[in-house]
Amino acid sequence: MTKFVKLFLLSVIIILTGCGETGYHATDDSGGYFDKRINENTYIIGFSGNGYSNFNTVRDYTFLHAAEIGKKLGYKYFTTDGVKNLSTSEKYLRSTPIQSRATEDYYGNVYVETTGGDLYTQTVHFPKSSFKATYYTAKPAENHLRIYNITGVIDKVTKKYDLNLNKLQTREQEKQTGEDWLAE
Fold this sequence. Notes:
Elements: H1 3-18, E1 32-39, E2 42-48, H2 55-73, E3 77-80, E4 84-85, E5 88-95, E6 99-104, E7 110-115, E8 119-126, E9 128-136, E10 147-149, H3 150-160, H4 165-177
Antiparallel strand pairs: 1-2, 2-9, 3-9, 3-10, 4-9, 5-8, 6-7
Helix pairs in contact: 2-3
């Protein structure tokens, strides 16, 4: 394989692995889940995605994080005040790639032809969802619109997105303690 082909394949691999929707993890520069305790059994839960994420995934991850908190605290059910769509959009000014081609005629004159550089606006959407979750040890009265079973939410979302929460939690703990989970 030529050096050029190897560099090209490496570039494609880096681009494909570096660009993607926000994975399920605590908030960082690319987004992630967040929470704020309001009282003993009530939290504000949310998830922010990046420009590659879609709102349905962000909403599902918000529910998953709510269920994880409830499970960690020993609850079996939670209710919400309704999912809030807090998504934003930003416009970016972009240009098409500029390409130049130089040609030389018989007499040594060089002619340069330049194409591209056309400006256009690109809109990027950043999905974000949030809700207030109230937790219960026993199934609450039917006066709530939706009552969520914590185990059911965890099972459904982890299967849908093929998530291994134990592995994800271990990585989060290692990041917090400064351990390098990639080390041998």
